Every structure is written in C-alpha cells, then in structure tokens.
Amino acid sequence: MIITQQKPLEEILKMLEPFSKVFIIGCGTCSTVCQTGGEEQVEQMAETLKKEGKEVTGSVVVEAPCDARLLRRDTRKMKKAIEESEALLCMTCGAGVQDIVQHLKKISVPALNTKFLGQIERIGEFYERCRACGECILYETGGICPIVRCPKGMMNGPCGGMFEGKCEVGGYQRDCAWVLIYNRLKELGMLDLYKSYKPPRDNSQLNIQPREIVLVKTRR
Ligand code: SF4
Ligand code: SF4
Predict the structure, then answer these.
(1) Full set of structural domains in the chain with CATH
(2) Residue 179 CA: which ligand is closest?
(3) Are the CB atoms for 58 and 88 separated by under 8 Å?
(4) Model-level pTM greater than 0.85?
(5) 145 close to ligand 1 (CB < 6 Angstrom)
(6) At 126, phi and psi to the nearest 5?
(7) pLDDT tens digits for range 22-68
C-alpha cells in the first residue's frame, strides 16, 4: 500500500490561491485506507474549501486514480463539473496526481505527501516495508527487508552498532533488522540462509529513471 499524509492546509490553500473553482478527486484504495483521500476526507475538504471562499464544482473518489482505465471510468460522469473547475485538488499519491494531469489535462494540485510503500498494522499505524528495489531478497531474509529496516541497508549483518538486539541508529530505540532476520530464520528452521554471504547489490538499474515494465505496448 502507498502511504500518504495530508499536506498542511496552509500549503494546500497557498497552491489553490489563484483558483476559485475547484474539483476534488479522492482515491478509493490506498488514500482511503490511510484516511487521507477517502469519501470522508474528500467531503471534509470540500467543506473546508467552501469556508475558505472557494467554489467546489464537484468531487469524486476514483477507485484507483493511478490506473488510467479506472480514472477514465470514474470521472466520465463528472465531466461537466471537472470542466467547470479551474483546478483539480488531488487527494491521491503522486502516481495518482500524475495520471490525473495526463488524462484530465487540467491543473492539478497535490493535497497529499506520498511517504512510502508500507504495511498497515491498524488504521493510523503505518510502517515502511519496501523500497521497490526491483530485486526482492525476502526469501533469503525470512521476509524481513534489510534494505528498508536496516538504516544502513546492510546486506550482511548485524553491524558493530548493534547492542542487545537494538540498532544504534536513532539511539537504540528500534530492533536491529538483522537480529530480527536471525530470529525469524531460526524460527523457520532456515538459519543456513542467514549464514550465506549476500553479495553487494547491483543498483545500477535503479539509477535508470523512470523505471518501466511494458509487456504489451498499446497505441496512444
Ligand atoms: S528486497 Fe526489500 S526493497 Fe527490495 S523488493 Fe524486496 S521488500 Fe522491497
Ligand atoms: S544495528 Fe542492525 S539495523 Fe542498525 S545499522 Fe547495524 S545492522 Fe542495521
């Protein structure tokens, strides 16, 4: 899940300053779960903008605004209200905002900050768990990602900064990722994987941005 956080209202209003008519787009998937762009938050935002003197021409919560097909489907019926607006306020992740601009061709203002790819423990409790490195090694590490959970991204650990199972980074508050990995592999009876040397990663492909996977090229 993509974890988002709403930007401070002052920042949103600053970006919306030049526009008096606004259409709001929420996200029915990740932003709904994060409570940053679901039905309730979109409604609240509409009320807030109205109090700030804006005209809200309409709003919609798209099932997944980062999917062009769903974006087109869910905004079709709102075409008039979208056209009437001067700007779209996107309560979506950055991928959603970019899809919205590309397909609706209107000035789009991001209402959220996209934070990370995360795991949801419960509503309001989100933890970064994957950095989309492109070469998943979770099998070798008992399902615990050292790239994310070790602040140094150690591929073989723990480092010398571990003390009583805790990580020196941040003052021994958090568990050392490599102690977690050791314990998990032990629990699973797979300690041989812990002992195997993990070579440095080839991050050269990561530096080629933007990354793409195109299995079937469609005509545009
Ligand atoms: S190794 Fe970590 S960062 Fe890479 S894909 Fe797997 S979980 Fe994500
Ligand atoms: S103590 Fe553990 S988690 Fe912290 S930097 Fe060293 S190996 Fe990584």
Answers:
(1) 2-115 (3.40.50.2300), 133-195 (no CATH)
(2) 2
(3) no
(4) yes
(5) yes
(6) -125, 140
(7) 999 999 999 999 999 999 999 999 999 999 999 999 999 999 999 99
